[in-house]
């Protein structure tokens, strides 16, 4: 269908569902679309519609499903979503040209279980009040029963479009805020969304640490935080995530170890706060921690990959030629490699190769005693020299 949207107001009183998705409609939503307000499903996704979300829709107090995805809509998310219209369970605005902040009023949507704002121009921070979304904390799906027989929805998970129909859609719990300009830290409150299955915050400008308690999201299957400015260690709490099958932390400033099985599926992620006085030392600590976790998992064949060329060369070569500060860690790595039937090391070049360096420098500034390194005890230097081991620089 190719047409502008010219709809008569005569039928509005009889319309509960509008589904004109996947056509070639253009123009703006009609001004009268919210009169007299009987609408509870609006699906106009995958068209060429533009303009702002019509104010008249605030009259549709029974509106449960809003899908404006893949159009050319502009403007901000109106504050009446969550105030005048409190029953929305699916809000899908992805792939438009929306701007502004994510309004706090969305946190009032107690039935919301799919929030998709990806691929827009939203800015500001992620609202801390997301833990008020009760459908994602302890469940609240009764408002969905009225139209579950009709509805179907396309959701993007792991860069794959999946179509959910009827009762299946009630079980989907996802938040996708990817490809915007969001900044600030990931709020700790997001760890309260215990029923969440998919969380995608990739391609933003988020900074700070990953919430340490993010592993409490036990039902999480997809976690994508890639292409941000996150720093620090990969939270060790992720090691208890039994359903997590897609994990992406790439292109950040993170340090830690991620363990995958032979099919590439996430098995465990780990990171520990360590005293790190150089980038290579931070990398070595992460590698050692990864070997310990792999052993705990009962692994017998390991293929270890690191984006630190210096670390891989040090492990594969003569560890005594490495820096004196990392010699004990390299020796421990060599020893723990003997726990496995096979243990190989490979350098993986990536544009994110400086990630561990940045994290290690953060650790250096916050946690390390510079005086001890610059002026190490003479007794330690003497012992190292007698044993023929790498020594710290001397004045």
TrEMBL record:
Main location group: membrane
List the InterPro entries hit by this protein, alphabetically: Leu-rich_rpt, LRR_dom_sf, RLP23-like, RNase_H-like_dom_plant, RNaseH-like_sf, RNaseH_domain, RNaseH_sf
The cellular location(s) given in this protein's UniProt record come to: Membrane
Against SUPFAM superfamilies, the record matches this protein to: L domain-like (SSF52058), Ribonuclease H-like (SSF53098)
An example Pfam family from this entry, by short name, is: LRR_1
**Protein's membrane topology:** Single-pass type I membrane protein
Q: Which UniProt keywords apply?
A: Glycoprotein, Membrane, Receptor, Signal, Transmembrane, Transmembrane helix
Per UniProt, residues of the RNase H type-1 domain are: 256-360
Kindly give the CDD domains that the UniProt entry links to this protein. RNase_H_like (cd06222)
Q: Kindly give the PANTHER family that the UniProt entry links to this protein.
A: LRR RECEPTOR-LIKE KINASE, OS11G0565920 PROTEIN
Name of the protein: LRR receptor-like serine/threonine-protein kinase GSO2
Protein source organism: Prunus mume (Japanese apricot)
Task: Write the gene name.
Answer: LOC103325614
């Amino acid at each position: 269908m190719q047409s502008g949207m010219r709809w008569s107001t005569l039928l509005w009183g009889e319309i509960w569902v509008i589904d004109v998705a996947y056509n070639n409609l253009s123009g703006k939503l009609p001004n009268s679309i919210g009169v007299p307000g009987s609408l509870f499903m609006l699906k106009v996704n995958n068209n060429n519609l533009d303009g702002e979300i019509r104010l008249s829709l605030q009259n549709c107090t029974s509106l449960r499903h809003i899908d404006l995805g893949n159009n050319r809509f502009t403007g901000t998310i109106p504050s009446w979503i969550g105030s005048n219209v409190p029953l929305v369970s699916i809000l899908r605005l992805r792939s438009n040209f929306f701007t502004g902040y994510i309004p706090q009023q969305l946190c009032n949507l107690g039935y919301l279980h799919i929030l998709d704002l990806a691929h827009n121009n939203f800015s500001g921070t992620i609202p801390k009040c997301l833990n008020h979304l009760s459908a994602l904390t302890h469940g609240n799906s009764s408002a969905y029963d009225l139209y579950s027989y009709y509805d179907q929805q396309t959701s993007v998970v792991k860069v794959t479009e999946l179509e959910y129909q009827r009762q299946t859609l009630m079980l989907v719990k996802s938040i996708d805020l990817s490809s915007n300009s969001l900044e600030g830290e990931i709020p700790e409150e997001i760890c309260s969304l215990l029923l969440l299955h998919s969380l995608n915050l990739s391609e933003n400008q988020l900074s700070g640490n990953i919430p340490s308690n993010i592993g409490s999201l036990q039902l999480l299957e997809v976690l994508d935080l890639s292409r941000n400015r996150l720093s620090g260690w990969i939270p060790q709490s992720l090691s208890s995530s039994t359903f997590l099958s897609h994990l992406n932390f790439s292109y950040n400033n993170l340090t830690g170890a991620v363990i995958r099985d032979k099919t590439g599926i996430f098995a465990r992620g780990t990171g520990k706060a360590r005293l790190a006085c150089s980038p290579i030392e931070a990398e070595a600590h992460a590698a050692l921690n990864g070997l310990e976790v792999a052993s705990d998992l009962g692994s017998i064949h390991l293929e270890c990959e690191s984006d630190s060329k210096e670390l891989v060369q040090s492990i594969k070569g003569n560890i005594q030629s490495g820096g004196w500060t990392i010699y004990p860690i390299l020796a421990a790595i060599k020893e723990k490699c003997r726990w496995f039937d096979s243990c190989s090391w490979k350098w993986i070049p990536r544009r994110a190769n400086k990630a561990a360096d940045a994290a290690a420098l953060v650790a250096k500034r916050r946690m390390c005693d510079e005086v001890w390194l610059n002026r190490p005890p003479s007794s330690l230097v003497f012992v190292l020299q007698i044993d023929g081991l790498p020594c710290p620089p001397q004045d």
